[in-house]
Amino acid sequence: MDLLQAIHERHSVRTYEDGPLSNDHKAALNRLITTFNAESGLHMQLVTDERKAFGGLKANIGRFSYGRFKNVKNYIALIGRKGSDLEELCGYFGELIVLEAQTLGLKTCWVGGTFRKVRKAFEIDDGEKLVAVIAVGYSDLEGKPHKSKGFNEVSKTIGVMPDWYARGVEAALLAPTAINQQKFVFELNENETVTATTKVGPFSKVDLGIAKCHFEIGSGKDDTIWAG
Asked: Do 3-137 and 151-225 come out as alike in CATH topology?
């Protein structure tokens, strides 16, 4: 499975088997985290066998409820130095880990506000912030596809457009977002760079990072595609 296939097959899962991650899977996740931390400057960490963060909690954001988490005891803490780009970085590199985890046969779920912060489970240095976590583990469940906006609702580009741009937007529409809000917008510029913005909403900057990750994978472009 490559990352584009993972985009199409991966959905959020909130119920997991009550067993530990294998040593191989822990090692693989830690290698990814080490690599992406070095690239991004983030301080992401894998937490294993820790039950307090999700014990008995439901997945709630505002008035929306997504059901109860079950057997979540492994998760990735998305931590980094406070700054205007922190949330977007966590979204981008966190989603790369999510997609890589899918290729390894693991299931995942992005979690913003519905978890207990167990301070002894991870390290937060001075000037850093915990943005979100990603539940990870084994499950027989596949999750369900989310409802999606239409192409023209998230793209300002009209008329003839290159295939790579269309593929990028289509991949972004498969990105997980908080309460399925999909507030990101893409626009193709005359020099064939792309402007990506987001409207205000809960975790919308994290969502923008996730969507940009999907766009790059779908389009086959790298981060030089972004204007500015």
From this structure: yes
Nearest to 222 by CA among 162, 152, 164: 164
DSSP-derived 3-state class of residue 19:
coil
Q: How far apart (Å, rounded) are the C-alpha atoms in residues 115 and 107?
A: 18
Q: How far is CA 184 from CA 28, 36, 47, in A?
A: 31, 23, 30
Tokens of 224: 């030089």
3-class DSSP state of 9: helix
CATH code at 3-137: 3.40.109.10
Helix (H, G, I), strand (E, B) or coil at 61: strand
Handedness of CA 84, 86, 87, 93 (dihedral sign): positive
Rounded CA separation 145/58 (Å): 20
φ/ψ of residue 203, rounded to 5: 60, 25
User: What backbone phi and psi angles, to 5 degrees, belong to 15?
Assistant: -120, 125
Per-residue pLDDT tens digits for 178-222? 989 999 999 999 999 999 999 999 999 999 999 999 999 999 999
* pTM to 2 decimal places: 0.94
Would you say domain 151-225 falls under CATH 3.30.2350.10? no
Tokens 């830690």 correspond to what residue?
Answer: 30
Contact predicate 174/148, CB 8 Å:
yes
Q: Cα(162)–Cα(164) distance, rounded to whole angstroms?
A: 5
Residue 31 burial (C-beta neighbours within 10 Å; 0-12, 13-18, 19+)? exposed
- How many angstroms separate the CA atoms of 32 and 157, rounded? 35
